[in-house]
Specification:
alpha/beta; Rossmann fold; seven-stranded mixed β-sheet; four-stranded parallel β-sheet; binds pyridoxal-5'-phosphate
């Protein structure tokens, strides 16, 4: 058969989330930006329901998945693991390539894995609405879906350029019942401040995050949601890797290499850390590879320092690789993964040599994405093409060296809503978004000083 699919039964959907904080080195405290002392659980609880505060600070190895959440997961989980035989043939490689496909979720990416538990815990805590920020629209769609599943309201601040360029993502959110607002907006202080300086501001993820946070503080019935980065978000995503481990048992194989796209780091964490836990317990060593865009090279060119997760500096300080919270990636970048920072857990794994990081250019990513679509029939999300590029590079190395390794790549979502980027690539109109040293330096200069490491 050309494409082999490994599926689990409903009974095999994980019953717990793994907590990667129990596996990854020293965990550094989150700091209050004013006092620069560790934030208290009470301070975190101002924008997070109690169960998530507990998960965020916990070093327990796992958390039980509440049954209502697990039942909603069962609407599309387990997600398939495929062996990509046609891609292997197209590359003429001795490597065995597998992909874990998260695009079967209702919104087309892995993000509902955490949006649903965040909605559940916020509802338990008495919230009647959810608010969040979104760039390309995938997180906003997941928040809108999760809110609708728990009969909650949803408010999404969407980066203005995407709001204008991706009208269908917005329509999807509205279909689920959410209100989607272009950011910067006139609805919040931080939005108004940005517009006063630059009325034509295209928006950024950091600005949208500041707006969503201010909306949550002004509307206490709304719970603020987080699409990536935090420990509890990475933990929720471990359903991906836990399923993959079981699916490799069915395949009677085991990965030598696990590759994922790295923006905020959560899908990579969810796929890779369950394999790391097995390795730390004595199983085979697995090379874990984070692939990021050359336009937003957080892990390969950023610094490890304490920084904010939003551009206005409203969030606490997290110790992580960062390009500076004021970093703005080149406007021509179409591949997503635009966060200036990365999950502290992923950052730590890279710092400690448990994970590697590489940066790739967007035309090389779309080239790999188109090759993948023609071989496997799925148009990957632009973000996911980074993982594909990383896996293809490893498969080509196997060919050069004449060794047949097993490669697992995280196909984090499909690209059916992202065809404008493909249109530009196919027309040869996608510039290779080199990052200038000036832009990089301007970002790094926004890391709070004196820098704390
Ligand atoms: C959001 C998203 C990403 C990047 O987020 P991470 O937190 O780095 O995982 C990657 N792929 C898709 C399809 C996404 O929606």
């Amino acid at each position: 058969m050309d494409k082999i699919k490994y599926e689990l039964t409903e009974a095999d959907i994980p019953r717990t989330w793994l907590n990667p904080a129990a596996d990854v080195g020293t965990v550094h405290p989150i700091l209050d930006p004013v006092t620069r002392t560790p934030v208290t659980p009470e301070a975190l609880a101002r924008s997070m329901p109690p169960a998530l505060v507990e998960q965020e600070l916990s070093l327990e190895p796992e958390f039980e998945i509440p049954e209502p959440v697990r039942q909603l997961y069962a609407q599309w989980r387990s997600t398939p693991l495929y062996r990509a035989r046609r891609l292997e043939r197209a590359l003429d490689t001795p490597a065995r390539i597998y992909y874990k496909y998260e695009g079967v979720a209702p919104t087309g990416s892995f993000k509902p894995n955490t949006a649903i538990p965040q909605a559940y815990y916020n509802k338990l805590a008495g919230k009647t609405g959810l608010v969040g920020e979104t760039g390309a629209g995938q997180w906003g769609s997941a928040v809108a879906l999760a809110a609708s599943l728990f009969d909650m309201a949803a408010k999404v601040f969407m980066v203005r350029v995407s709001f204008e360029q991706k009208p269908y993502r917005r329509t999807l959110m509205e279909t689920y019942g959410a209100t989607c607002t272009a950011s910067p907006s006139t609805e919040t202080d931080s939005g108004r401040a940005v517009l006063a300086e630059l009325p034509e501001h295209p928006g950024s993820l950091g600005v949208a995050k500041s707006e969503a946070l201010q909306f949550a503080f002004a509307n206490p019935d709304y719970g603020y949601t987080r699409g990536s980065g935090l420990n509890h978000v990475c933990a929720h995503q471990t359903v991906i890797g836990q399923e993959a481990v079981r699916q490799f048992e069915l395949a009677d194989d085991y990965p030598d290499i696990v590759v994922g796209a790295a923006g905020g780091g959560s899908n990579l964490a969810g796929l890779a850390f369950p394999f790391l836990r097995r390795q730390l317990a004595g199983a085979e060593r697995v090379r874990l590879i984070a692939v990021e865009p050359a336009a937003c090279p957080t892990l390969t060119r950023g610094r490890i320092a304490y920084d904010h997760a939003d551009s206005a500096g409203l969030t606490p300080l997290f110790r992580m690789h960062t390009l500076g919270h004021k970093f703005i990636p080149p406007a021509v970048h179409a591949g997503g993964l635009r966060a200036h920072n990365i999950a502290p857990l992923v950052s730590r794994a890279v710092e400690d040599g448990l994970m590697e990081a590489v940066a790739v250019r967007q035309n090389d990513c779309f080239e790999a994405g188109v090759l993948f679509a023609r071989a496997e029939g799925i148009v990957p999300a632009p973000e996911s093409t980074h993982a594909i590029r990383g896996a293809v590079n490893e498969a080509l190395r196997c060919k050069e060296e004449g060794v047949g390794k097993t490669i697992l790549l995280g196909l984090s979502g499909h690209g059916d809503f992202d065809l404008v980027a493909y249109e530009r690539y196919l027309a040869g109109r996608l510039p290779d978004d080199a990052l200038t040293d000036e832009v990089l330096q301007a970002g790094l200069d926004s890391i709070p000083s004196p820098a704390l490491v």
